[in-house]
Write a structure and sequence with these properties.
single chain; alpha/beta; globular
């Protein structure tokens, strides 16, 4: 049987203050990959995600709450 791959997708916008706590709450070795999809944040969300070795995608324009979530699933 083929092993399932577990991927966590984190849509984010100006999440610098809460991102580390979110990452730390994910049990070690739980996911095969964690992807952050940034909605053109104005803070250091992307830098923090990169520091934590997350795969990062950044939108060129802010798409809003729903707009950031929908394309996030296409990154898989």
């Amino acid at each position: 049987m083929k092993k399932l791959k577990i991927v966590i997708v984190l849509p984010a916008y100006n999440a610098e203050k809460t991102l580390q706590k979110t990452i730390d709450a994910i049990p070690e070795n739980y996911a095969d990959e964690i992807i952050l999809v940034d909605d053109k944040s104005n803070d250091d969300t992307v830098k923090l995600a990169e520091k934590n070795n997350l795969k990062v995608f950044v939108h060129k324009n802010n798409l809003g709450y729903g707009g950031n979530q929908k394309p996030a699933t296409n990154k898989l």
